[in-house]
Amino acid sequence: MAFSCKKDNQTIYSFQYDLKDWIALKKEKNSDFTMSCCGDLATLKTSRLGTQFFAHKIRPNSSSCSTDGESDEHMDIKRLVMQELSENGWSVEVEKRGATPNGEEWIADIYAEKGKAKIAIEVQWSPQAFIETKRRQEKYAQSGVRCAWLLRSGSIKARNAIVGDYAYSTKDLPVFSIYKNNRQDGQTYMVYNVNKLKLDSYDPLEPIALELEDFIKSLVSSRIRFIKKYSPVRRLYLKIIKQNCWNRRCGGTTKVVTRMYFKEIVFGIEIEYLFQSEAIDDCDNQMVSMLNSQFAKAYNFVPLRRRYSKTVGGSYVANSCIHCDALMGKHFIGYYNDEDPSMVKTHCINIPNKGDLIEHGESFEFGKWVLIDN
Fold this sequence. Notes:
Blueprint lengths: L3 E4 L2 E4 L5 H8 L6 E3 L6 E5 L5 E5 L15 H16 L3 E9 L5 E10 L2 E8 L5 H13 L3 E7 L22 E5 L10 E8 L7 E7 H9 L3 E5 L4 E12 L8 E14 L2 E11 L5 H15 L5 E5 L4 E7 L6 E2 L1 H4 L10 E2 L3 E4 L14 E5 L3
Parallel strand pairs: 8-9, 9-10
Antiparallel strand pairs: 1-2, 1-3, 4-5, 6-7, 7-8, 10-11, 11-12, 13-22, 14-15, 14-20, 14-21, 15-16, 17-18, 18-19
Helix pairs in contact: 2-4
């Protein structure tokens, strides 16, 4: 099977013909059709799934014709992908041969160009080890070609082909599941392992399925984007309240920092429910310096510093009275709540993420492919 051939020495593509024109093309008697792969005579055929293709009129002696032996489903998916790319202005080739700068050869199921963009779509209908997929992907990367993979899903009970090593999703290796329920009439090929953002939910991602044509259209229009799960930064803010100085000779009102609060950024969204709080007394020198430079002047509190406490019998990072510089020890802060009318929540700043919430086996490179609404 092939999707291109030479008609009177001009390349034509089967997916560019509607059914009426395809039938008319078959009836042409004065044209020569030859296979692009080898130059042998070609014949025009239609598969049981309605896929239009070219085949060798006589079985070739050479086994180099790579499209021979592909299943009807594999060819049908390739046809739909090429047709969608062509309709969206891409110049499409099937079984495109290329090579890396080091001379390593590759053959793309579907290759397309538009302007300076070069992409490949691989339809993997038979099982392929993750390490082999990664090896082939690296060839495309070295050649300046972005490649996405459509992996065949197993059955109606297990539509997800992204298991094992494939589940470790990174931007460098876009892999998706493709499935068609043949038990349902009119069912189209569906692509899985795409998500949508839910801004008002505990879990910010919702798995969705897209029809193959919609998936390809969204992919090449940059509406499907890779979003990392974890951010290299997290957000920090303080809560500050007013208290009276314990020093009887002072008794003035001063501002004290109660705690530090951290918000995680998950899939690009600040997740309020993932905030953590920490006391300021154990801050290291670098954190103290940052808090003072970012907040002290803006919110009019005495810069935090390490001070000795007779009550504790040691030193820790603490507040001080803005009037008399008395130590406002942590036990003087006492009980406070968000209903306190003097409570102030500062603006947020970015700080390095220590990776406390990163799950086992994941990293800052792990993420998901997300459909972005326009």
